[in-house]
């Protein structure tokens, strides 16, 4: 991973890379935000120091005099500069998830990108470039940036003007990151009547549109079903995000599934070439397996996404891959196993398989 310090410190003793790796693993493990922030802040502070200054402060034991560097992060820096893997990092690496089963590992290896994630432009915790670099480092060739739409004010949803500004930022970053690519996108709210919460002319400019229900989740099925079908039939919709809206664990508590006619909704997805998202967030794992099997039977396309709000959460895709494997989702129907050109051809001409 580019460390911001790589040109002056050898890879075997790179404190910035080690601090960022710790933050990544903490995010993946759903540790508290303040703990993650401590390591990311320290990485930024250390990365801005000249080599001589860093060496002198480390030798003198004065790293903690720097704003943003505490005793734990200072100890990690000292161990890293000594050519050791920091103890904190070793402990995190030792508690990594158990190895993936063969089918899950095969699906994860086939994924080329992630079609649903957020940055600090909406309710994510990291800048766009950090999300892109983390995705590249775990083997992706692209991500789709899908910050929220304006109605979701609690998530700092992007107005049309802010989204247009973001498109310019993404274009500039793509020049720097090539051949890796940030695809333009949005997680657009499905409004009560099934319309989408952004200007159609702006949606048409985006590479990928994820449409999700975030409001009135307890709407009766007789109202929710036509609401979802209307959004699915919208020519701008590419992916149906976390379709039941359920929460199965986590700090926000649990939330039951929204009620809708799943057979009709998935038939609409198959008819209009809209992919059903497997949302890999541990608190969502949406849709439930019984509905995922129904989507497979209906012939739906699928997108295995993380809905990541921080770099480490990009490594949650195995959770979705495990569900896809158990529900016999064909690899060729998973849109983010496709080459980027095929993915973009599909979104440009709905329903046409590569």
Sheet/helix structural class: alpha/beta
Cα shape: globular
What is the CA–CA distance across the termini? 32 Å
Strand residues, percent: 5-15%
Radius of gyration: 21 Å
Output the CATH class name of the largest domain: Alpha Beta
Total domains: 2
Segments where pLDDT lies below 50 for 5+ residues?
A: 1-11
**Integer average pLDDT:** 94
Structure notes:
The protein has 14 helices and 7 strands. The chain has about 350 residues and is α/β, with parallel strands linked by helices. The chain has 2 domains: about 80 residues, DNA polymerase, domain 1 (Orthogonal Bundle); about 250 residues, Metal-dependent hydrolases (TIM Barrel, Alpha-Beta Barrel). Strand 5, helix 11 and strand 6 form a beta-alpha-beta unit. The protein starts with 14 loop residues before the first helix and ends in a 6-residue tail after the last helix.
Summarize the structure.
It is built from 14 helices and seven strands. It has helices at residues 15-28, 33-47, 51-60, 71-81, 87-94, 102-110, 128-137, 160-177, 200-203, 221-233, 262-272, 289-297, 317-326, 340-348; strands at 113-117, 142-145, 181-189, 208-212, 239-240, 275-279, 302-305.
